[in-house]
Amino acid sequence: MASSVSSSLLILVLFSFTSSLLLCNAYLPLRHHPNRGVASHNYRDALTKSILFFEGQRSGKLPSNQRMTWRRDSGLSDGSAMHVDLVGGYYDAGDNVKFGFPMAFTTTMLSWSVIEFGGLMKGELGNAREAIRWATDYLLKATAQPDTIYVQVGDANKDHACWERPEDMDTPRSVLKIDRNTPGSEVAAETAAALAAASLVFRRIDPTYYKLLVRRAMRVFKFADKYRGTYSNALKSFVCPFYCSYSGYQDELLWGAAWLHKATKNPTYLNYIQVNGQTLGADESDNTFGWDNKHVGARILVSKAYLVQKVQSLHDYKGHADNYICSLLPGSSQAQYTPGGLLFKMDDTNMQYVTSTSFLLVTYAKYLTSARKVVNCGGAIVTPKRLRTIAKKQVDYLLGDNPLKMSYMVGYGTRYPQRIHHRGSSLPSIAAHPAKIQCSSGFSIMKSPSPNPNILVGAVIGGPDQHDRFPDQRSDYYQSEPATYINAPLVGALAYLAHSFGQL
Description:
Elements: H1 2-26, E1 32-33, E2 37-38, H2 43-56, E3 98-99, H3 100-117, H4 125-142, E4 148-153, H5 156-160, E5 175-179, H6 185-202, H7 207-226, H8 231-234, H9 236-239, H10 250-264, H11 267-276, H12 295-307, H13 315-328, H14 351-371, E6 375-377, E7 380-382, H15 384-399, H16 423-426, H17 443-446, H18 477-480, H19 484-500
Antiparallel strand pairs: 1-2, 3-4, 4-5, 6-7
Keywords: Carbohydrate metabolism, Cellulose degradation, Glycosidase, Hydrolase, Polysaccharide degradation, Signal
Domain Glycoside hydrolase family: 43-494
Signal peptide: 1-20
């Protein structure tokens, strides 16, 4: 009898243990998966915050569901200087100017993030679409007139002479435009790319909006290609040195055509790429991808048509894309990394290259996996898994795996920058200080060592220097200023990582 009872108890204990183990395993994907490895960070939380950041950069009449509640309406008369409606859009960084060139690139990259990884975003997909639409609604206003694009609102020099909240700004809201007589192919083609890429985001959920975006993208690209010239020449005193085009407009024409081909499947754009690719610099050796230079992004994007859609005439783009990948490998003569392992391209806002590179790595890995291809770097085989590993390491550094144990995303982790170079974040909010803060009055706060009172959640800043140092000084805009085009590609990379580690 005792033996029978003992056996029964043993069976009960084993059953309880097994049930508990199964129950634990049922929740295992949220934390760890044997095929995924251990997640270094809460990528889902970082994804949520990276998208929320865009609400802090909004210009115009804020909606009732605005989550960054320390912000208020601003720039409600933008465009009136030219008798047009240019209310809305985004402030690009820590100032109160709306620059069309980086805003368009931000829109393209946010859209590409959703196109490639939106299906993995779950509850954040709606917020990502809202972030894109806030930009495209503005870009549609800016391109409403044929052969004309309004490319800037605000006088950057006068704006930078003040330190004031966007809600208080009283500096001139000058309006700059390009047209047939004052061409700007780089900003026009980037705007076409943004509209085309965004159209794909809305194709299924809002067909009317999709058609509007596609038609406008086609018209804007035609203008960019027909009236060639760089806006940095015609508008130099206004756009330089802020967003001068140093790489020319050839890269944007190729990039814009690639996005229109993807959005329309019109053979006209495929033919444009085939005929003009080389003269537009498809084989450029410059391996920097950002708001100014799109060559690398175009190579990766066009390579998909060869890898996945089997467009044989675009075979060379796989080679161009591979060359870029090889240039990134640690040990390559073209790649520079900090002692802590961060990709380092330049002193000014280096983190934008970290986020854009990370996005391209996970995206190209996706294309290669679909085609069952690898990268050959001088006889060394580089697999899609290796690309993802490199991207993850960069994102992990950004989120806190670095010598300073500092997250370079505001509001993520326990230690992050407290004094970012951002007017609205650094000055007391309207709710805390209803009275207007005059132009020069804010500089005493800008120069103070006090932490910013308003947390610009999700903002990724310029980042550490080449020796992994970061002083967290508000005056150091190279390292401490956030920008929309830093965050935009990170959204896609974070969505991929969050899904990969079972967090979405």
